[in-house]
């Protein structure tokens, strides 16, 4: 069955980003893989009065299925409204690999899609991105493109080295493809194992500044922006998990980008860490527990609590829309 995102109560990202750019905050784009994660994301954003982009990778879409994902997204909108919040909710395909993946997502009710042609050369990236834009815009679905390459691993996206975005290419890329937003590479990284402890991760904000000078007011996106909170790394280890020591992007760096021209910041790993820490704590402290509601519910609340704090300290999107009634 095919779905139209408007019938699900979803929004695309066009007006979201225009408001974010005008008011100097970034829209949270949080990945989800199940119902509890969706609930945590929507409830956190509804309570904070923040717009939200529910992100779903091709792997997550396959896991939850194309029949279930649109219903979860609709339920997210309904949950926000039940809480008394009017926040816009978008459903976004993260790292769409090709036009076929985009077509599947749009038929499943996605209101926004990303086409990741960053592994191609510049000309091929433009060609592939333009083809997706022409298709998606027929359905009023917004499109995110990408220039530059982030190192790290996220689902099926794997890259060994960073390739920073060339500010000289952005005008031609955006002009020729008509993308609605552009993901750039300025030092963020995919996955939990971003940087070794003892290093001092910094964003190349001079690259961001140059891109903004070339494309004033255009929505810029940052991928791979998890902070890898040590609290959750230590909780996971304490309760029987194994994780390599790593650190992420400092919140102070991301906050500076959010107050500049960055309209959307992606966070996936942090949510996974918070969720897993919650589950592991229950299993370790209550080994006789077998009711999924008792451990998934704890994980949901841990993830929600973390995202509320992230909205306040990094995104600056708190209160952009009506907050949920308490």
TrEMBL record:
Pathway of action: Carbohydrate degradation; glycolysis; D-glyceraldehyde 3-phosphate and glycerone phosphate from D-glucose: step 4/4
One Pfam family in the UniProt entry: F_bP_aldolase
Cofactor: Zn(2+)
Coiled-coil stretches: none
GO biological process annotation, one example: fructose 1,6-bisphosphate metabolic process
EC number annotated for this UniProt entry: 4.1.2.13
Keyword tRNA processing: no
Any GO MF annotation of the entry: zinc ion binding
Gene3D superfamilies (alphabetical): Aldolase class I
Binding-site residues for Zn(2+) 1, renumbered to this chain: 95, 190, 223
Organism superkingdom: Bacteria
Residues reported to bind Zn(2+) 2: 116, 146
Active site per UniProt: 94 (proton donor)
Matches recorded under SUPFAM superfamilies: Aldolase (SSF51569)
Family the UniProt entry places it in: Belongs to the class II fructose-bisphosphate aldolase family.
Official protein name in the record: fructose-bisphosphate aldolase
Known function: Catalyzes the aldol condensation of dihydroxyacetone phosphate (DHAP or glycerone-phosphate) with glyceraldehyde 3-phosphate (G3P) to form fructose 1,6-bisphosphate (FBP) in gluconeogenesis and the reverse reaction in glycolysis.
Record's catalysed reaction(s): beta-D-fructose 1,6-bisphosphate = D-glyceraldehyde 3-phosphate + dihydroxyacetone phosphate
Cofactor: how bound: Binds 2 Zn(2+) ions per subunit. One is catalytic and the other provides a structural contribution.
Catalytic EC class: lyase
Ligand binding (dihydroxyacetone phosphate): 191, 224-226, 266-269
Keywords: Glycolysis, Lyase, Metal-binding, Zinc
